[in-house]
């Protein structure tokens, strides 16, 4: 009996191993897919799918997770929203597997990818949640400065999400931290950090400061011979110089951008430089020079189908004719600009039918491929069964195989249930985060409007002594103050905050004697907002925030070496 079992195993074991590739071959496929993504995205996707298929046969969770993340990195290069969502699905699968392997660094990489993907889809509450989770994870891992680069990236990602959320103070705070880290380790990320700081400062109308950071980024791009970003930064400096009325510097930067973009075929920036040079000469009232550059911009943008630049150029040329007093020509170019604008709007409104057809054909192809693959597997099983007929113990072996298959199916069902529960939990928390973010923005907007109205009433009361209206003005001010202090939006805010952090405020209230204002401050600190954003939401003077935080620290009985933020983040 034992002899027959040994013979059966000797025959069957190679069959079970058939199709299973060594780990090194799969890793080579993954590397090949990543390299191909720079040239041919579709071919890279096919190679990555092949690597994933082979990795699944090894049951190596880390290898499978790396395949999923590689697929996500490749698919996101296709650009459209559907591929972004498909990329996110792959990253979430990789994250689940990496969490099981307890590889914290790989977990961070997947979390960071998710934060960036959701940011690009403008799903900012989800992006903020993952970005904050990534930063918290890296703070724990970077205790001995072993992961400085990843810590800098985590700050950079969160800063980018704050930037898109228009929370510019918090964004600058994290960009500054990231730039300090990148400068210490001499990372090329420093140039991108400087560029984004310049963009945020431009949004805040601090053009002089923005110019300083663009110049820093430009130096690094030049050192690294990163010509596309060097040209783009030079062009941005030219645009910024126009806003600062530094026309000589604007022309210098824009001419450099014009020359280099033409040399390397960077057509968008070439046309943009022509357009901006026309604007500079218009501001200098050199109409002939302005006409020269705007005509060139219209020709280039029209021949290369750059509709947005063409639209702006047509409007500028119409304006030039209007300045010259030629209303007939001005109307011609205004009409052309309006026609182009209408065309652009109509194109945006029409669904991308070709893309839908291609997607449908791709799905059909995948379905057909799976069908053929299933048929091939069935034929292989028949061949194996025919070999087993020759063995005395074939029936016993098949029973063992079927039992093993049932166990795997049962485990697969349990796994699907757990994943479904996890997704439901994440979606519920995402909904609460969206409600909390919306309430926070409504509070900031309404408080700022009420404060401006109150200040305006004070100025009116001081400047104009209106008979019989003094008492009414004071009543209106009292109502505004009451509205600032007692607004139902605060109730909504705390309702959604407690849904996300259910025991946080109750713990604070039970352990310490805190006022309603103290609880508000604790909630905002828990959300990791900057001092300036907190002042804006609580309508308090920025100079007094340190005193208020110091008093709160005393009330919470926090030790000197620990900050209020660290203490509150430690509470669940």
Number of helices: 26
Strand content: under 5%
Helix content: over 70%
Please tell me how large the radius of gyration is.
31 Å
Q: State the shape.
A: globular
What's the number of extended β-strand segments? 0
Mean pLDDT: 81
Structural class based on helices, strands and sheet pairing = mainly alpha
Note the gap between the termini.
Answer: 62 Å
Which stretches are poorly predicted, pLDDT < 50 over at least 5 residues? 8-19, 350-358
Secondary-structure element sequence? HHHHHHHHHHHHHHHHHHHHHHHHHH
What is the makeup of the main sheet?
Answer: none
Question: Explain this structure to me?
Answer:
The protein has 572 residues and is an all-alpha fold. The chain is 83% helix and 0% strand. The chain has 26 helices and no strands. It has helices at 2-17, 23-36, 41-58, 61-75, 81-101, 104-120, 124-141, 148-164, 168-184, 189-203, 207-223, 227-243, 247-264, 267-283, 287-303, 307-323, 327-349, 353-389, 394-463, 470-485, 488-500, 504-511, 516-526, 531-538, 545-555, 564-570. Helix 6 packs parallel to helix 8 and helix 10 (189-203) packs antiparallel against helix 11 (207-223). The model is unreliable at 8-19 and 350-358 (pLDDT under 50).
